[in-house]
């Protein structure tokens, strides 16, 4: 989908205390062989700080950087990978109440680590469509500090889960980055890859269940589809979305200054994204992201914020954002940096 007249005005980030991968190995939480092979160097742990409170902090930063009052926001879209509050509650309303925003529409996106680009795609529709929204606030946050999740091993060797939050103010008119294109899709053949054989019914014993995505994936690869075929299908699917976004933006892969994927093992990024595009790893955000951990849907905004703040992106640079989630869902987006923001 080609996009015109939509800009990212500002972003905000919150990361709690960092824990190094070396410390994880020393504490017996992380496998030393995986650490040495994968190159991931750390994560962030929030402890008893709720995800929604981190989202509020990131949102306040984004609003302050944009020079906006809460009353300037006309729409809010929130996404989360894991627990955002008690069942039956409405997480976006908590964020809005804490920010002092009332009377605006809000949405809760449940697309896992793909949530922020899914939210951006919705915001593009709101801004360019009948709603005529001028400014939308996007938020996302995760806290994986629970006995039900193993942040070091539970999602396979390619990830270390991290806590944190990110926010973005998106609107018409101007901003530091222009949205040139965005595309998404669902590879439903892989739905069972993350579900396994687990029931679709609500829990029957009243107790929480340990989340073991890596075990579900291994079961799927054993019974349904070999891992090599799964990875091949994902690669073809994601590259198709990337190529659509590049064509819609009128660009070639060689025009990209940076590629920002989710934070994972660099070998996966190189094999599935950079190498097929004919780009070196130096054009990715991995060198920074390897030390952050996988903060769910917040990864892309955290890396974008870092690259802009440190001067690694300049006006005229084109950036590809790529994220995925269970299902199998993927989104790709092309931005062009238009200005150096004051922050």
Based on the model shown, name its key terms.
9-stranded mixed β-sheet; Peroxisomal Thiolase, Chain A, domain 1; alpha/beta; 343 residues
Stretches with pLDDT under 50, minimum 5 residues: none
CATH superfamily of the largest domain: Thiolase/Chalcone synthase
Share in β-strands: 15-25%
What is the CATH T-level topology of the largest domain? Peroxisomal Thiolase, Chain A, domain 1
Residue share in helix = 25-40%
Q: Numbering strands along the chain, what is their spatial order in the largest sheet?
A: 5-4-6-7-1-8-11-10-9
What's this model, at a glance?
With 343 residues, the protein is α/β, with parallel strands linked by helices. 34% of the residues lie in helices and 22% in strands.
What does this structure look like?
This protein has 343 residues and is α/β, with parallel strands linked by helices. It has eleven helices and eleven strands. The chain has two domains: 6-173, 3-Layer(aba) Sandwich (Peroxisomal Thiolase, Chain A, domain 1), CATH 3.40.47; 180-337, Peroxisomal Thiolase, Chain A, domain 1 (3-Layer(aba) Sandwich), CATH 3.40.47. It is 34% helix and 22% strand. It has a nine-stranded mixed beta sheet with strand order 5-4-6-7-1-8-11-10-9, sandwiched between helices. A two-stranded antiparallel ribbon has the order 2-3. β10 and β11 (329-337) form a beta hairpin. It is globular. The protein starts with 5 loop residues before the first strand and ends in a 6-residue tail after the last strand. The mean pLDDT is 92.
């Amino acid at each position: 989908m080609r996009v015109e007249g939509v800009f990212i005005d500002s972003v905000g980030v919150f990361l709690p205390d960092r824990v190094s991968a070396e410390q994880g190995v020393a504490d017996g939480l992380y496998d030393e062989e995986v650490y040495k092979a994968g190159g991931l160097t750390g994560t962030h742990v929030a402890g008893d700080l709720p995800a929604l409170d981190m989202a509020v902090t990131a949102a306040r930063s984004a609003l302050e950087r944009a020079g906006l009052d809460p009353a300037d926001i006309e729409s809010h879209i929130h996404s989360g990978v894991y627990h955002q509050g008690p069942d039956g509650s409405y997480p976006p309303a908590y964020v809005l109440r804490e920010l002092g925003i009332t009377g605006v529409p809000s949405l809760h996106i449940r697309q896992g680590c793909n949530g922020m680009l899914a939210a951006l795609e919705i915001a593009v529709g709101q801004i360019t469509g009948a709603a005529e929204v001028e400014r939308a606030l996007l938020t996302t946050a995760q806290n994986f500090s629970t006995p039900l999740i193993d942040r070091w091993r539970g999602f396979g060797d390619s990830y270390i889960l991290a806590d944190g939050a990110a926010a973005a103010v998106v609107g018409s008119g101007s901003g530091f980055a222009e949205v040139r294109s965005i595309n998404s899709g669902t590879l439903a053949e892989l739905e069972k890859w993350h579900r396994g054989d687990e029931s679709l019914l609500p829990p029957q014993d009243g107790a929480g269940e340990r989340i073991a995505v890596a075990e579900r994936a291994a079961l799927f690869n054993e019974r349904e589809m070999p891992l090599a075929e799964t990875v091949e299908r994902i690669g073809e699917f994601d590259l198709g979305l990337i190529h659509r976004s590049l064509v819609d933006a009128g660009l070639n892969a060689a025009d990209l200054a940076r590629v920002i994927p989710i934070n994972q093992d660099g070998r996966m990024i190189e094999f599935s994204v950079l190498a097929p595009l004919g780009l070196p790893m130096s054009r990715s955000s991995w060198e920074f992201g390897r030390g952050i951990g996988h903060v769910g849907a917040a990864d892309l905004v955290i890396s974008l914020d870092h690259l802009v703040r440190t001067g690694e992106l300049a006006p005229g640079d084109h950036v590809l954002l790529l994220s995925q989630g269970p299902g199998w869902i993927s989104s790709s987006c092309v931005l062009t940096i238009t200005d150096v923001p004051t922050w």
